[in-house]
Amino acid sequence: MVDDPQRNFRSHYYEKVGFRGVEEKKSLEILLKEETIALNKLQTFVLRFPLPALFRPLVWKVLLGVLPVHKDAHEFVIKQKEEQYQDMKHALVVMRYINNSSSLPDIFLKMHQMEEGRLLLEEPEELLPADQTYVTIATRITEMMEDEVFTFFLCEEFHRRLQEPKFKESIPVMIKRLVQYLQTEDQTLYTHMLNTGILGALPCERWFGTCFAHILPEVCVQRIWDKVIAGSHRFLVFVALQLLVTFSRQLLKINNVEGMLQFFCNLPADNVDMLVTKATELWQKQGSP
């Protein structure tokens, strides 16, 4: 296939003046306009390029299977899911599990428990770990999306993927890779964290299990979830690595596990915006997915 000189010139011009994503956006628009959306191509796009916020709701719905790839079925599926959601919500109101003051994350959790046949007569003193993860995911995703109905189904599918054995079994491997990469990227920080016992106490399982929903700003979490939803669990390793490297100076001053945990509960706003960008660069440098 012969290269199109005009297209190459246009691409070079866009990149030079800061509009590198113009052609990528056009490609995504074409993908999403197809009567049958090519799932593999859509996954590849999201893994390779930044996902414009305008397209995020639809792309997530398709990648998570909330909407089918066949666009002619969308109207029917949307109607069915709206009815299903309202039926579940009404049932919970009748059974007095929720009321007008219930938060969306709490409503979603009750629906999730009802779907799994786990509704209890009384609130437990402490949620199961999987339910704690669900609430964390639900809290963050309700801040991102506006459509209540589809926010619930997105939450359901994303949480389901994070509970799959394949993902859970990959977490110890990801933690091992994180330690290896940290030793390469920042030997000083690695040695300090190893000697103080902080390295072995990092809350990596929670970081990976919630895809950083609980500690990073919304704009960062959206970009992280883009990659995870498109199929890259490995991306989480580089986010964790960049998180440590970005705050290396502060972490070198912490000498105990309690101080480390407290630090990550109250992350400084400085440098957080660039964290995912740098993590993406590292991830791509190491061969992506």
UniProtKB/TrEMBL annotation:
<dbReference type="InterPro" id="IPR035969">
    <property type="entry name" value="Rab-GAP_TBC_sf"/>
</dbReference>
<dbReference type="GO" id="GO:0005765">
    <property type="term" value="C:lysosomal membrane"/>
</dbReference>
<dbReference type="InterPro" id="IPR000195">
    <property type="entry name" value="Rab-GAP-TBC_dom"/>
</dbReference>
<dbReference type="GO" id="GO:0032007">
    <property type="term" value="P:negative regulation of TOR signaling"/>
</dbReference>
<keyword id="KW-0472">Membrane</keyword>
<keyword id="KW-0963">Cytoplasm</keyword>
<dbReference type="GO" id="GO:0005096">
    <property type="term" value="F:GTPase activator activity"/>
</dbReference>
<dbReference type="Pfam" id="PF00566">
    <property type="entry name" value="RabGAP-TBC"/>
</dbReference>
<comment type="function">
    <text>Non-catalytic component of the TSC-TBC complex, a multiprotein complex that acts as a negative regulator of the canonical mTORC1 complex, an evolutionarily conserved central nutrient sensor that stimulates anabolic reactions and macromolecule biosynthesis to promote cellular biomass generation and growth. The TSC-TBC complex acts as a GTPase-activating protein (GAP) for the small GTPase RHEB, a direct activator of the protein kinase activity of mTORC1.</text>
</comment>
<dbReference type="InterPro" id="IPR043039">
    <property type="entry name" value="TBC1D7_dom2"/>
</dbReference>
<keyword id="KW-0968">Cytoplasmic vesicle</keyword>
<dbReference type="InterPro" id="IPR039842">
    <property type="entry name" value="TBC1D7"/>
</dbReference>
<keyword id="KW-0458">Lysosome</keyword>
<keyword id="KW-0343">GTPase activation</keyword>
<dbReference type="GO" id="GO:0005829">
    <property type="term" value="C:cytosol"/>
</dbReference>
<dbReference type="GO" id="GO:0031410">
    <property type="term" value="C:cytoplasmic vesicle"/>
</dbReference>
<feature type="domain" description="Rab-GAP TBC">
    <location>
        <begin position="50"/>
        <end position="232"/>
    </location>
</feature>
<protein>
    <recommendedName>
        <fullName>TBC1 domain family member 7</fullName>
    </recommendedName>
</protein>
